[in-house]
Amino acid sequence: MEKVNNVTVFILRGLSQNPKVEEVCFVFFSLFYLAILLGNLLIILTVRMGNLLKYPMYFFLNYLSSVDICYSSVIAPKMIVDLLAKHKTISYAGCMLQLFGVHFFGPTEVFILIIMAYDRYVAICKPLHYMIIMDQNRCNKIMLGAWVGGFLHSVIQMALVVQLPFCGPNVIDHYFCDVHPVLKLACTDTYVVGVVETANSGTIALGAFVILLISYTFILISLRKQSAEGRRKALSTCGSHIAVVIMFFGPCTFMYMRPDVTFAADKMVAVFYTIITPMLNPLIYTLRNAEVKKAMKKLGHRKVF
């Protein structure tokens, strides 16, 4: 059967259909996006100019901040503009590109969080061999694997969607193009595609969450052998990582570990992992990390004097 695609433009329903609510959301989400850009750029500058890239944890933190900027930039600017627009439209090509970006940078962030958990496990449980195990060459290879993993996941999601015919309804009940809302518009049976998508995204979300829980469990168990000061420092660092994991993976698991159905709360849940987490990451990793705060003070002092 030949693919029929009569849809060239999609209409996004957005976060709300109430103009007053949209105006308030415009102000808040504009500030949130600005905080994402400034906060994560500050972390990147601090790590790079503070000569912290040679330490594995900050090497990965630098890439986490970069991915946060890219991930939110795929979604937030369009969402913010649409909050004041009368007609919230996106072209078919633009929708597919946004879907690709969401499923490229999102899983890449998942993989980086797993890497950071492994890094903390090695640092706390095998401190004497830490710099040997996590040498620069291995860190580079691990990061390359994270980018390749995110790319492969995104290609699979794109391949599932672009081969579908769209010949009728073109209203997406969301504020960005994601697989579940787009599948509802296809004028063919999408059951198999939905199952494959759920298995793909769901496995990454739930699998990563389980791996992270196991990693931090081993870390917490090993802290019993540490000194009081060592436990305090380790708990401070791991506490920030666990906070990010809960905020990011809780909503992701809710969204992708279920069949091809949508709920009214999906849009508000998606805000947590597309906007809130990228905004809070810089605060969590700086306020809970003495080394980063020290490097920021040095960087500020250098700029002033």
TrEMBL record:
Family annotation (InterPro entries): GPCR_Rhodpsn (IPR000276), GPCR_Rhodpsn_7TM (IPR017452), Olfact_rcpt (IPR000725), Olfactory_Receptors (IPR050427)
Domain G-protein coupled receptors family 1 profile residues, every copy: 39-285
Annotated Pfam families: 7tm_4
Gene name of the encoded protein: LOC103210746
PROSITE patterns: G_PROTEIN_RECEP_F1_1, G_PROTEIN_RECEP_F1_2
Protein name, as recorded: Olfactory receptor
Cellular component, GO, one term: plasma membrane
Subcellular location: Cell membrane; Membrane
Keywords of this entry: Cell membrane, G-protein coupled receptor, Membrane, Olfaction, Receptor, Sensory transduction, Transducer, Transmembrane, Transmembrane helix
One term of GO molecular function: olfactory receptor activity
Chief place where the protein resides: membrane
TM ranges: 26-47, 59-80, 100-121, 142-166, 204-223, 235-256, 268-287
SUPFAM superfamilies named in the record: Family A G protein-coupled receptor-like
Membrane topology per record: Multi-pass membrane protein
